[in-house]
């Protein structure tokens, strides 16, 4: 499946049953809401998808199931967050065999690779597959930054095509655009910065709160791209307290709780994560309930 790295790509949460197996019916319920809202692709097994707790077999099951479920309507992207180059290549090969449309690559996990090692890691995986690739650049959480000089080397490979820009540095959109033009597609990876980065020319948005609020997320993206900025700003101002839930180490629990309140998800997480309790739960639920009480009416954005 050929596609452009443009639009809204939810980093989907992984649903679990009470006995800690994959809950595919619950996954389907959320996925259907995403497709109906107009998302442009989905990402499986990312940080929000609890990648670090998923087995290789579970990732394969998710990819196979999602590919069958979407039926070619939108691309299915699998995140690779492995500790070794060998395992990263194995996951890439498996994703292609199962019908995935593309890959998102994190740098090596559990080892702070230097620039040379990080580039070699990304290149080795990219050279093992024909699938299009988006590099996940998040030095805040993963302590390794993919710099413009590193991208200069990586873009020698045709299938490295995009970056999930999560440096928290809005000027990186312009910096990368000035250096690479349209050769490198740029997708905002930080929910709270999406409007600013889209206005500066980002091609898309890898979103988190979209898991609970797909229509609002897609509406903001499409309104901005259509030049209807005031309408997008008004929705974003309402959305911001909810989007800030994406910036916490417990973003998985926070966003899954939001999915419960919007009726398109479950709260179950995989240990060592635990569901929210006490004051923290009350605080997060207060943000969610306030947002729902003031949820805006959306324009007819699907045809923009």
Automatic annotation (TrEMBL):
Active site: 136, 164
Keywords for the protein's UniProt record, in alphabetical order: Lyase
Xref: Pfam families: DHDPS (PF00701)
UniProt xrefs under SMART domains: DHDPS
Membrane spanning residue stretches: none
Matches recorded under SUPFAM superfamilies: Aldolase (SSF51569)
GO molecular function, one term: 4-hydroxy-tetrahydrodipicolinate synthase activity
Highest taxon above the source species: Bacteria
UniProt-annotated binding residues for pyruvate: 206
Family: Belongs to the DapA family.
Biological classification of the source: Bacteria, Pseudomonadati, Bacteroidota, Cytophagia, Cytophagales
Descriptive protein name: Dihydrodipicolinate synthase family protein
